[in-house]
C-alpha cells in the first residue's frame, strides 16, 4: 500500500515523476541507455539541464529579467558559505528565524561580523520576527522564507535597497509571489523539486562581481554561470527529477495553481489543530507555514494510541524535529489533499476515543 508521505525532506514527489524517472533509469527515451549512464556533455543531458534551468526561471516569473538558474551541489548548507564568499565585502544583515537561519549566520561569520537584524530564538523560533530595520549600506540581507523545523513562514517581505538573499529550501514553487523582489534564491531540491543531491540557485547576475576576495572556482557563481551549470559533473539524477517535477508543475498551471491546493491542505490541517482540544499548534497563527504544520498532542497518555492509529492509517513521516518535539506534517506541493484528509480523520477519531 502506498503511504501518506508527510516527510520533511527528502519528501514526497509526484507519482508521475517517480514513474518517468524509473523508466528513464532503465532506458532513457528508447536510447538503450540509462539517464544516469550517459555523459553529462551528451546532447540528451545538456537538453535536460537547459530545460530544468529554463523551467525554474519560467515558473518563478523571472525569465528575461537578468536572472540565471544553476543546479549546484553541496546542499543548501553549501549556499550558506557561497553566499558569503560571493557577496559579503563589508557587512551583511541576517534574520535569525530558525535553526537553518542560525547556521547560515554561523557560516557567514567566518568572513565577517554579521549583523542579526532580529531573532526569534528566545521563543524557540515559534514566530517570524517583524518590524526591524535593515541598514541600507550593507552588502545584502539574508532570510529564510520558510522555517522547516518550526513550521513558520514569512507572509510578507521587507522592502530594502540592498540585495535580498533568501533560503527558500522548503517553500520554493509553493506560492505565487513576486520573485523578482529577491536577488538570490537558493533551495535544496529534496522538498519541492526532486531527488536530493542538487540545490537550485537563482541569481540576478548584476549582484555578482562586487567583492574583492578571490573565490575558489567551485564556490564561484560566476564560474558556474559561465559554464552553463556544468563546471563539473552535475548530479544528473537529481537534475533530471527536478526537471520532471518542474514540467509536472507547469502542466498543473504553475505556482498560482499549486498555491490554491496548498492553501486547501493547510487550512484543513490547521482547522483540525485548532478545533481538536487534544492538539496544540506550535507556531504563532499569523506565521503558520503552509508547508510544515507543527503541533503537539496535549495528553501524553494518548500518544501510543495515536501513533498506532497513524501507523494503521499509513501515515508516514510526521514525527516532529527533536528541537520542537510533537508532530510535523509536511505538506509539500506533491502531497495530495487526500493525505491531509486521512491524517485529519485520524486526529478527529482520536478525539472521539478520548
Ligand atoms: N535550509 C532549510 C530551510 C532547510 O529546511 C534545510 C534542510 N532541511 C537546509 C537549509 C539544509 O539543506 P541541505 O541539507 O540541503 O544542506
UniProtKB/TrEMBL annotation:
Gene: serC
Name assigned to this protein: Phosphoserine aminotransferase
Binding site for pyridoxal 5'-phosphate: 76-77, 100, 148, 167, 190, 232-233
Residues where N6-(pyridoxal phosphate)lysine is found: 191
Signal listed as a keyword: no
Self-association and partners: Homodimer.
Cofactor(s) needed: pyridoxal 5'-phosphate
Enzyme superclass (EC): transferase
Lineage: Bacteria, Pseudomonadati, Bacteroidota, Flavobacteriia, Flavobacteriales
Entry-linked InterPro entries: Aminotrans_V_dom, Aminotrans_V_PyrdxlP_BS, Pser_aminoTfrase, PyrdxlP-dep_Trfase, PyrdxlP-dep_Trfase_major, PyrdxlP-dep_Trfase_small
Keyword terms of this UniProt record: Amino-acid biosynthesis, Aminotransferase, Cytoplasm, Pyridoxal phosphate, Pyridoxine biosynthesis, Serine biosynthesis, Transferase
Pathway(s) per entry: Cofactor biosynthesis; pyridoxine 5'-phosphate biosynthesis; pyridoxine 5'-phosphate from D-erythrose 4-phosphate: step 3/5; Amino-acid biosynthesis; L-serine biosynthesis; L-serine from 3-phospho-D-glycerate: step 2/3
Biological source species: Hwangdonia lutea
Biological processes, Gene Ontology terms: L-serine biosynthetic process; pyridoxine biosynthetic process
Catalysed reactions listed for this entry: O-phospho-L-serine + 2-oxoglutarate = 3-phosphooxypyruvate + L-glutamate; 4-(phosphooxy)-L-threonine + 2-oxoglutarate = (R)-3-hydroxy-2-oxo-4-phosphooxybutanoate + L-glutamate
Cytoplasm recorded as keyword: yes
GO molecular function: O-phospho-L-serine:2-oxoglutarate aminotransferase activity; pyridoxal phosphate binding
GO cellular component: cytoplasm
